[in-house]
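Listing S7. Sequence submitted for prediction.
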Amino acid sequence: MQRWLKFVKYLRDYGWEPIVYTPQNPDFELQDKSLLQDIPNGMTILKRPIWEPFSMYRLLLGKKAVQKQGVVANTSGSVFSRLSVWIRGNFFIPDARVFWVRPSVNYLTKYLKANPVDVLITTGPPHSLHLIGLEIKKRIGVKWLADFRDPWSKWDVLDQLSLSKQSRKSHYSLEQSVLKNADQIIVVSPSLKASLVELGARNIDVITNGYDFEPPVDYVMFPDKFRVSHVGLLNQGRNPIMLWQALNEIADSDINFANDLEIHLSGTIESEVIDSIEALKNLSGRYIYKGYLNHDEVIEVYSSSVILLLLVNNTNNAKWILPGKMFEYIAYGKPILALGKTISDASDVLIDSGNKPCFEFNDIEGIRKFILAQYENFKNNQLPLLNDNTGKFHRKELTKLLAACLDKL
């Protein structure tokens, strides 16, 4: 959501007037209304109703119903939950928002014939939105740019859905239609670009995510605690067990470190993560869980932290992932402890911005050395130095790249 909110915020600066089409009644568990202030004044916003099957699932399962990235999570292990995941994967292709495609195509075809535009843009996931672009492209021939924030047929999320061979084939076939018919494609990382090129994509450019605030000139208030902070979703699959063990061992051998340490967690944290921290005697009383924070509150967390924790997916195909918050971390200039694949797009960006590359999730010795080095700086009141090579990740600069793609069309 932030990716296109920020593009829309700055497009007028480069001679493009955005018109946004969005669901009138989307099913979202979290909302940050503070971001409404970024919507440009006087902009045309079109809204149409959407029906999502998850609302029916929620009625049946109540508070146990969980939805992440459009996937019904199989948290309870019950037969009903497993069946729901299987139905989601094999009947709602490419995703559960597919029921919005036909009414949207009919509405937008009529609207665009009466109100022509220069370029139509779709962004996915949900990849069903690309099917809207595909059909409108066929009907009225408008120039079409497709934005991939995640893979499609090679997305590891599909592995959770118990897909049949026919369902896998359907995803691939739909993806092929989008890749072959879009006039321009943009993606969020170099490795994702390479993956789509292998699948036949053409006219494809990389425009990463970024940050949208002015980095601090200096730090007036030095953090009062040796605060290690993570912001956002933290699930069992990305639980940094070796980090918790390293912190526990250092605290066990150094009472000063133990007294200075605070682990800050905010966002959506699965109970298994909290349990793994609670199980370690030197950490159980040294973490704070704040729950969901709006974006302004998140910026305050950056300021009060010594280390910002970045967790990239702990999977073999995570090389392409560039988490959105990574660019905010980089812009704020605090040391980043990143766990992921050492050889990856994330490591390349971190090195380019003057940070350490990703540590593997099981590299407890490397993690320990990093923490001890930052703790020594903390005790000596040594502040981090901001890198001058971060301006290219400002949302306004990234929108300039998008405008250049639109100009070509």
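Caption to Listing S7: primary sequence and predicted structure tokens for the chain studied. Residues 62-76 have pLDDT under 50 and may be disordered. The two ends are 24 Å apart (CA to CA).
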